[in-house]
Amino acid sequence: MIKTATDATFEAEVLQNDKPVVVDFWAAWCGPCKLVAPEMEKLAAKYEGAIDIVKVDVDANPGLSRAFNIMSIPTIAFFAPGKQPMGVVGFRPAEQLEVQFGLAGYPKVAAPAAADAAAAPTSASDAA
């Protein structure tokens, strides 16, 4: 699930979050921002429960744009607890963002692991 943060909620949603957060700084009039939205959906689905995905409308939240020096959009920023935020400007596919921010190092949803575990006995009996 993708959350929305505002000037008022950003600190609680992102800065004080105990999980890593990918933040999409965007605006309704921004063409490339529309390309980023489905990539954020992919990351939200893949890392649900492990990494939060948050969108910030820069027009509605000018304080955040100033605070993080957002000069161009889309800007995708990664906030990991206890670390300096990292950011990239412009459209990037979800896979490139995963590599750029090292997302694979964070635990993923348990569902795929459970599916693998369920499949393991089948393949073991097939081998026998």
Short description:
This protein has 128 residues and is of the alpha/beta class. It is built from five helices and five strands, in the order βαβαβαββαα.
Explain the layout of strands and helices:
Blueprint lengths: L1 E3 L5 H6 L5 E6 L4 H16 L5 E6 L4 H6 L7 E5 L6 E4 L4 H8 L8 H18 L1
Parallel strand pairs: 1-3, 2-3
Antiparallel strand pairs: 2-4, 4-5
Keywords:
single chain; 128 residues; alpha/beta; Glutaredoxin; five-stranded mixed sheet; 5 helices; 5 strands; globular; disordered C terminus
Looking at the overall shape, the CATH architecture is 3-Layer(aba) Sandwich
What is the domain total for the residues?
Answer: 1
What is the CATH T-level topology? Glutaredoxin
SSE order, as H and E? EHEHEHEEHH
User: How many distinct helices?
Assistant: 5
Strand-pairing-aware structural class: alpha/beta
Shape: globular
End-to-end CA span: 42 Å
| Range of helix content | 40-55%
Task: State the fourth-level CATH superfamily.
Answer: Glutaredoxin
Q: Using DSSP, what is the number of strands? A: 5
Overall radius of gyration: 17 Å
**Uncertain runs:** 111-128
Largest sheet: 5 strands, mixed
Strands in their spatial order, largest beta sheet? 1-3-2-4-5
CATH class: Alpha Beta
What percent of residues are in strands?
A: 15-25%
Mean pLDDT value: 86
